[in-house]
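Students often ask why we bother encoding 3D structure as a string. The short answer is that it lets us treat folding as translation between two languages. Here is a chain of 122 residues written in the first language.
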Amino acid sequence: VTTDTPVKSPLRQVLVDVATFEPRADGTIVLSAQWRLTDGSGDRQLAGEAVTLTGQAADMSDPAIVAGMSKVVDQLALRIAQGIRNAGEPPTRRGKGQWGKGQWGKGQWDKGQWGKGRSAGR
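And here it is in the second language, the structure alphabet:
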């Protein structure tokens, strides 16, 4: 989260509006949010969805609730990452840098923690 103006205009933006993120008395963790992937100007939506994700705290202790909430945030991150992958590559910038070399999709999204061995349905 930042309020600083970027040096260069972004090629894409991910916007997340969280409606609910709370533990319930029975240990259920609930996260209701809507995320959107837009072009750099924010004028055109490329992907997005409204989701309600749930998880379960092992018990009602603070550490267990925090761990449960972290797992639910992971579920949301996986959904967003999949949406970004499905939206395809952004247009490249001319010149040097990550975007100009076509590196989108060759880093953590495909090979790292988001790409393999984890399921959004935990």
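Translate back mentally: Residues 95-122 have pLDDT under 50 and may be disordered. Keep this in mind for the problem set.
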